[in-house]
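Summary of Year 1 activities. Much of the first year was spent building the evaluation harness for sequence design. The harness presents a backbone, in tokenized form, and records the residue chosen at every position. We chose the following record to illustrate the format because it has been used consistently in internal testing since the harness was completed.
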């Protein structure tokens, strides 16, 4: 697959290498999980990851919404159960502003559901958690950044002989 944002690039549908001929694909699934397109667009990939994160959230919603677990334990469970599902393969993503917005919406929505409403001490009414009150949970962008740095380190240690 040739990755480019140019619509006219790569009109040839076959690529020849040595004695082998390969058909050019517009998209394919890498390792059965990541959808790669020839336009280098990850909007569909992020959409699929966010959709796959919803059942994961629902499967742990009962224990995470329980008052018996501490907030720190809930945050650790969110970071170890839900975030890896959503961020699988994020090391290679190049995000647009729309992608960043979608990930922020997910990042704010999930902990808000898991931690439930908060009782206002002054008014005595229940209200949604504010974004600032949820930032003790692992930031999706910090997790992505650490995964990218780790992946870059692995790629740098491969050296020149990695294709052999």
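For this record, the design step produced the sequence shown next.
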């Amino acid at each position: 697959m040739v990755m480019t944002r140019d619509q006219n690039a790569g009109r040839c549908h076959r690529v020849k290498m040595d004695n082998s001929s390969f058909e050019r694909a517009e998209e394919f699934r890498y390792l059965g999980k990541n959808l790669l397109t020839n336009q280098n667009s990850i909007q569909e990939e992020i959409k699929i990851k966010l959709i796959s994160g919803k059942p994961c959230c629902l499967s742990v919603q009962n224990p995470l919404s329980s008052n018996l677990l501490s907030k720190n334990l809930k945050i650790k469970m969110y970071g170890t159960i839900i975030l890896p599902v959503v961020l699988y393969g994020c090391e290679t993503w190049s995000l647009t502003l729309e992608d960043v917005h979608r990930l922020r919406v997910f990042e704010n929505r999930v902990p808000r559901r898991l931690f439930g409403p908060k009782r206002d001490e002054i008014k005595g009414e229940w209200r949604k958690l504010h974004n600032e009150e949820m930032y003790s949970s692992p930031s999706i962008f910090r997790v992505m950044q650490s995964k990218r740095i780790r992946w870059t380190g692995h790629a740098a240690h491969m050296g020149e002989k990695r294709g052999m």
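Residues 1-41 form one domain. Quantitative recovery figures across the full test set are reported in Table 2.
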